[in-house]
Amino acid sequence: MQKQSPNLLDKTVLRAAAWLAFKKLTPKAAATNPVMFVVLIGTVITAFFTVQRLFAGQPFGFELTTTLLLLFTVWFANFAESVAEARGRGQADSLRSAKRALKARRIKNGNEENVDADLLRKGDRVRVVQGEYVPADGEIVKGVATINESAVTGESAAVLREAGGDHCGVIGGTKVLSGEFEFEVTADPGHSFLDRMIGLVEGAQRQKTPNEMALTVLLAALTMVFILVVVTLPPMAHFMGVSLDYTMLIALLVCLIPTTIGGLLPAIGIAGMNRALAANVVAKSGKAVEVAGDVDTLLLDKTGTITFGDRQATRFMSAGNTPVVDLVNAAVLTSYEDPTPEGKSVLELAEREGYRVPERPVSADYIPFSAETRLSGITLADGTTFVKGASDAITAWADARDIRIPDDLKALVKEVAQSGGTPLVVATDAQILGVIALTDVIKPGVAERFARLRALGVRTVMVTGDNPVTAGVIAAEAGVDDFVAEAKPEDKLNLIRAEQAKGRLVAMVGDGTNDAPALAQADVGLAMNSGTQAAREAGNMVDLDSDPAKLLAVVEVGKQLLITRGALTTFSLANDVAKYFAIIPAVFAGALPAIAALDFMGLHSPISAVLAALIFNALIIPALIPLALRGVKLRPMTAERLLRNNMLVYGLGGVALPFVAIKVIDVLLSLVL
Ligand SMILES: Nc1ncnc2c1ncn2[C@@H]1O[C@H](COP(=O)(O)OP(=O)(O)OP(=O)(O)O)[C@@H](O)[C@H]1O
Ligand SMILES: [K+]
Ligand SMILES: [Mg+2]
């Protein structure tokens, strides 16, 4: 479900960007971009020459044209960045409309008071009822509600949020459709998700990523090299008895330095962030999006990520001679206070099948389900305990109590597991009663996405708390590369560490508090917005749609960012090399007949050659803006093949294009000059 991003050539966007690009024509703004800074200095110098010649009564047409072309080059570079920013700004406006003046019922010392939402602070308790807007970001501590989050996510389907689980997160500005709850505020005003998103799309919080920094340094170094080359030209020319024109040298320098990629680099980065946002993913930094493109291993859990995660009980299968009613009764007792989908569905199945089940006990100790123990249960007032859980967990529990394992248990567990279902073994402290079969459905399309990721060189590993047989069946059906079964939360963390120790970059997704350490350890940690505050803080990205499969899209957005940057860098550098060979002979041909042999382009005159190159050099920036913003199309192939293809297309294309374009512009100029 992608949010509609404004049209690339939307008139209002372009107009806003054009103005913004003018405002950026300052030395301070240019200073962040070394290549453009050099062009700006060149502009000032050629402008000086223009004025000088004007006052000396000499012809100044070439100087003036060069000055204007250089100014346009910087303006086009600013324009590219501004279009990317302005496109984000449109998104920010629609987000800002979700931020309205909200009221809150704050609870203080047991009393309720009406306050402006601006006054809410971290830790405050607030009550919200049906029909109201959630006044701040927070976690539900009491109650349950369905919420329409469309103001923030663009998704209009109602979502369920409740206390005490991994789905307790609420976002300020969203609307409560039904139910009521109390929540604890987790963000001060100005630091909410909405605020963060708005800041991100407006580029206010944009910092250069490490890769972008490295590339900027490289481009600056190249610029330095070309400055040295051009500076040594006059003495050399002088030695050969040729005197060179300084305006022409500056024009030559600008043609040679990497202005194309220098001008498009910021736009490419912003566009990547915008694409992540359009997919409803809030990255805490541009770096996170970029790292996602380099990820080698993707850790996914099974339930809820690969499958829909709404595991439903579908069958009671008793073991040995145990009557099915005994199994059902025990299963029901363990589920009265089990709020998980699994627990609820056990009660529903018993009712649907018409069993007369025991009353809900008035006083009992409940054993809540945890991913650590992988079981849930109840101890009645008379001391009898009933548990249900993963087969290995219950077998271990039974072993510790010297409870005999029925002979046919293994076969029952296997039968459920082989169909891809999850067997829950039910036991009392006297015997093992049987198995509840839970079924879950694999999300459509995941197998194709994994195949696509594999083609891109990303390994997928499924980590699940489920048994190895079920895990194997689901893994095969979904087409993951590897799986780990019977995993506890800390196993995820260890797995991430092990992968990282092999020099791999790891991405994972999670929503629970127990996922937080792994989310923090992973290079890309995608937290679900529905998840706990701990998870949302630990991850470096948050998915507003709370769809764990979104991780796949995030990796693709990151890859596309890296590939686009690589392709345009190749193209830009190839261009510069070509321009060198296209215009140097023309510039020297008149003075040095020996070089005329190299002047295979047959350009009209040195002046038209240089102007043609400058015009091409300026126009190529806006011509590539659409590609920079949309991104190079991501085709499933390995990194090496991608690199080779890019070198072929963008490298060879980048070499060939300037020759053709400069020749055409030169012919047109010769008609004018
Ligand atoms: N409500 C429950 N009561 C008892 N046992 C449960 C309950 N829910 C799940 N289990 C058992 O605990 C195991 C671990 O559950 P957990 O939710 O940690 O992982 P999972 O959902 O199987 O896998 P994943 O990590 O892919 O989400 C399950 O495979 C199941 O056997
Ligand atoms: K250039
Ligand atoms: Mg789970």
Automatic annotation (TrEMBL):
Enzyme class (EC, first level): translocase
Source organism: Halopseudomonas aestusnigri
Name listed for the protein in its UniProt record: Potassium-transporting ATPase ATP-binding subunit
Residue ranges of the TM segments: 34-55, 61-80, 213-234, 246-268, 580-601, 607-629, 649-672
This enzyme's EC code(s): 7.2.2.6
Active site: 301
Any Pfam family hit: E1-E2_ATPase
Residues engaged in binding Mg(2+): 511, 515
Job description of the protein: Part of the high-affinity ATP-driven potassium transport (or Kdp) system, which catalyzes the hydrolysis of ATP coupled with the electrogenic transport of potassium into the cytoplasm. This subunit is responsible for energy coupling to the transport system and for the release of the potassium ions to the cytoplasm.
Subunit record text: The system is composed of three essential subunits: KdpA, KdpB and KdpC.
Start and end residues of each P-type ATPase A domain: 103-202
Annotated positions binding ATP: 338, 342, 369-376, 388
Subcellular location: Cell membrane; Membrane
InterPro entries: ATPase_P-typ_cyto_dom_N, ATPase_P-typ_P_site, ATPase_P-typ_TM_dom_sf, ATPase_P-typ_transduc_dom_A_sf, ATPase_P-type_domA, HAD-like_sf, HAD_sf, P-type_ATPase_bsu_IA
Record family assignment: Belongs to the cation transport ATPase (P-type) (TC 3.A.3) family. Type IA subfamily.
Keywords: ATP-binding, Cell membrane, Ion transport, Magnesium, Membrane, Metal-binding, Nucleotide-binding, Phosphoprotein, Potassium, Potassium transport, Translocase, Transmembrane, Transmembrane helix, Transport
GO molecular function terms attached to this record: ATP binding; ATP hydrolysis activity; magnesium ion binding; P-type potassium transmembrane transporter activity
Keyword ATP-binding tagged: yes
Catalyzed reaction equations: K(+)(out) + ATP + H2O = K(+)(in) + ADP + phosphate + H(+)
Protein's UniProt keywords contain DNA damage: no
CC annotations in GO: plasma membrane
Membrane topology: Multi-pass membrane protein
